[in-house]
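hi! just following up on the protien thing from before. the input was this:
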Amino acid sequence: MENLNNMNELEEMRQQLQVLKDKVEKQGVLNEQLVRKSVKDKMKDIHHTIYKLFAMVVLVTPVWLLIKYQQNLSWPLFIFTLLMMYVSVFFDWYINRMDVDSMGSDLKETANRLVEMKKRRSLQEKIACFVVIPVWVVWLAYEFYQKAPDHETGIIMIVSMAIGLVIGGAIGLRIFLKWQHKNDEMIEQIEDLLKEE
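and the predicted 3d structure came back as:
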C-alpha cells in the first residue's frame, strides 16, 4: 500500500513537473513572439521615416531648381546637391533594409545584423558630417557670396543658409540618434531573451 502511495506521489510530481515545463516553454515562445513583434514594429517605423525622407527630397528638387535659377547658381552645384540628397536617402534605405516580415528564425543572427546596421549608419553619418556636407557648405557659401549683387546681400544669404543648415542638421541628428536608440533597444531585447534560454 505504501509503495502504491509513493508511486502515486511520484506520478503526481511528474505531472506537475510536466505542467511547469509546458508553462516555461509557452512563456519562452510568448517572449520570443513579443520580441519579434517589437523588432518588426521598430524596423517598420524606421522604414516609414525613410519613405518620408525620400518624399521630402522629391518635393525639394523643384524648389532647389527654382533657387538655382533665382540665385544664378552653377549646374555642378545644383547636380552635386541633388546627388548628395538622393544618395543619402539611398544609403538610409540600403543600410536599414531588413525584411521584417520574414525575419530569420535565428535571433542571434538578427542581433548581429542590427549591430552591423548601427555601425554602418554611424559610418554614413561621419562621412556626411566630416566630408560631404563641409564641401557642400563651402561651395554653396562661395557661390551665394559670388553671385550676390552686393556684399551685404551676400552676407544675408550666407547667414540664411547657416540658419537653414543648423535646422536641417538638428533634424538629421535627431533622426540618426532615434534610429541608433531603436537599434540599441532591439539588440537589448534580443540579448535579454537569449539569456533567458
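The two ends are 42 Å apart (CA to CA).
The chain is about 90% helix and 0% strand.
cheers
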